[in-house]
Amino acid sequence: MASQKTALIAQCEADKAITNEVSHEYQTHIAALDARLATLRLRPAHCVPVSNPSPGCNAAAGANKPIGQDGVDSRVFLDFAAVAEKYRLQLIGCQSFVNKTFRQ
Description:
- This protein is mostly helical.
- The chain has a domain at 34-104.
- It has helices spanning 2-41, 74-102, and strands at residues 47-49, 71-73.
- A two-stranded antiparallel ribbon has the order 1-2.
- The two termini are 23 Å apart.
- Residues 59-64 have low confidence and may be disordered.
């Protein structure tokens, strides 16, 4: 009984160490992503054409111009990519946790 309790305590401590390790790795990756995004957000936004612009539309407008019906603000794509990358990092973190937990 005492040896079983000792084994369970040891397993719990090992699992906590894995959790802390994977969490630290994940948080490090998220911080690096946030730093890269902050740098990219310093660039001026521009309009990204999504169709053939017709005369009078401003799909090819530069920074600080209104976005026309034929274009999308470049920050929309940056934000979408950031969300996708965060999901990717979460998945990698989960896979790492599972692999490290069941590797023992």
